[in-house]
Design goal:
The complex is a heterodimer. Chain A has helices at about 30-35, 40-50, 90-100, 105-160, 170-190, 205-225, 245-260, 315-325; strands at about 5-10, 20, 25-30, 55-60, 65-70, 75-85, 105, 205, 230-235, 235-240, 265-270, 275-285, 330-335, 340-350. Chain A is α+β, with helices and mostly antiparallel strands. Chain A folds into two domains: about 5-120, no CATH class; about 200-350, Histidine kinase-like ATPase, C-terminal domain (Heat Shock Protein 90). In chain A, strand 11 and strand 12 (about 275-285) form a beta hairpin. Chain B is about 50% helix and about 10% strand. In chain B, the strands form two sheets. In chain B, strands 3-2-4-5-6 form a five-stranded parallel sheet, sandwiched between helices. In chain B, strands 1-7 form a two-stranded antiparallel sheet. In chain B, helix 8 (about 165-175) packs antiparallel against helix 11. Chain B is elongated. Classes of the chains: A alpha+beta, B alpha/beta.
Chain lengths: ~350, ~240
Amino acid sequence: MKYSDFVMFPNVVLNGNEPFHLASGKSIEPSQFCKKHFGKDQSCIKHYNSSIEKSGWIPCPFGYSSYFFEIDGVKCAVTGVIPFPRIGTSEERLRAKISKEQKVTRTAVETSIRALNDLNVSDKEKVGRELSRNMAALHEVRKYNRNLVQTLERYCKSLNPQDPDRVAPELVRAWKLAELMSYQFEILSLIADENLVRIPPKTKSDVYKMLDKCIRVFRPIASDKGMRLDISGDTAYAIVSDKTFPMMATVLIENAIKYGAKDGRVDVNMKIINQNKFRVSVTNDITKETILPKNPFLRGARGSDDKDGTGVGLYLAQMVAKQHRTKIEFEVIETIKDFNRITFSFVLDQA
Amino acid sequence: MSWIKVFWKKFARAIDAFKQEEIPEFSSLKQNISRDKLKRNSRILFIDDEKIELVEDLKKEGFSADQDFSGNDSLVNIERGMFDLVVLDFKGVGKKYGGDDGLSLLRSIKRVNPSLYVLAYTSQNLSPAQSSEFYTLCDGTLIKDIGVADSIQRIEDALREAAEPKRIWQGILKGMGVEENSERAKELEKKIMKAILNNKKEEALACLGEEKLGFDGSLISSLIEKLISLGLDHLVKQA
């Protein structure tokens, strides 16, 4: 675990070196002590690991205390403070004598965190409203895109009625890119209206066929990176929401290409587990140096600095998975070859 | 006395056989209709305020498809069961039915023909309240900017789902105001199934004659006709 794995109050959430101003007006300086000791001392690491199961006030081994909480699924901590009322350890008593400026009332911290949470909720609503307004403007663009997709498809079909995918590659590429744009618009509309993931799935869908379609759309992008993109396995039906479900496949395949190793492979597979269930998996090569966030499904967790990701794709995909009463899981398999392999998978009920 | 015993045994066996007469239930059947027959027997209605080229694509493929630009004139035909699938836009349609555009129209459609298959067909972002109701009431979505072949495939899948005997039967019961799992429903199901097995529409309709129809009788009649036109040779027992 690294110091940066945590969003630490008072110094990080409020962007850099600004102290954390509590509702009472008191300001707490960033805890240099924590920054110095974090990750070096075993008892310190154990203290932060305990936040995985616990929340609230927890005493640290050096006499300070931490307050662990979550905002929008992101783990946060107020660290290096001495709360009042005290927790009551002997280390705390000693620490309180040395670090007078780190003393703070519990209520002040908790009230400020509640305020931050409220701010975050209203901020999310604001983003949704703004995006919704922009989507109305994008509606026209979507219309043009529909014309583009369908005109190109009709033209390709007129050139080769049996297999319109096999005409001039530039033409097919333009067609598939326009189709890809449609997928992106669907993702945007889901960001603008998260209510869509609350609508119960009710359409019986051939999942293999849907994945195969997705792969045909993404193949030109994969081939740009020298990647092979293949699908294999069994056919199965599931009850899905045809508004949101394709987005899950889109995000997983798109990410596999975006974060996958150049000249590597992306394998999409469907496997019937038993009479009732089947598994969908998307596996790709990753370089040995690739470091994944602990939980890539958190909003913004995989928003890469060097690639054009927004960090919401996997977050939304996981929400869609939840809508379909499943969960996307991932596993990294280390190999002795040039690349490691990473698999994102989910299990669905057969319809 | 032995002949009485023999006679009684034979009689009891005959009674058992009569009781066990196997009449399939609609829920145990699924249609296996050919693509050609599906095209011939299905009627699709697009309700959209702008011209949809997909309608022409569908016609070229052999489907029967029409477009209503306002949604104001189709409700009577929808109530009579003249369409198997409605593809419904949101913005600019159904103004006659309320302030929520396509959603107001959708509410009316589901009131007059609850089992009609409706696909949402809009690329507009709706308000959270509208989107929840619109997508919940619709039976599925046809994403507006996907390709032609995919759109046709989605429509074909929707038509197949719409032609499921169980769904049509539920529509008949809803239309008649009969509770789905009630004794009355079971009794009616047996009678109608028998009539359909004999390919007799009049007989099937006669079974319902005494019932007070909750809706316009032509909807029930059209649904029964649909069950018969699908034909039991296309209905196979689910494994």
